[in-house]
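Lab notebook, bench 4. The sequencing result for the construct came back, and we need a structural model before the next group meeting so we can plan mutations. Quick request posted to the team channel:

Model the 3D structure of this chain.
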Amino acid sequence: MINVVIPMAGAGSRFQAEGFDKPKPFIDVNGKMMIERVLDGVSLPDAHYTLIIQERFREENGVRYGGKADAGRVLHGVGGA
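Done. Here's the predicted structure in C-alpha cell form:
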C-alpha cells in the first residue's frame, strides 16, 4: 500500500487577492471543488489518502468525507490562523 498525503492547510491568499472568497481547495471548477478534481485524478490502487486541512476551513466550507467514493481517504483537521 502507498500513502498519499495532500496538504491543503494554506489560506489561498493569492486566490483571495484575485477576488475568490474560499481557500483554493474549495473553489468551484465546473460544479466540483478543486480538491474533488484532484482526488478524482489521483487513482492509485491500494492507496491510503490523508488530507490535511485547517479545521476552520473544513467547518466554513462544509467539507465532509464518507461513502464509497471516499474509501481510504482520511481528513485531518489542524489548528492555524
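The chain is about 25% helix and 30% strand.
Will bring this to the meeting.
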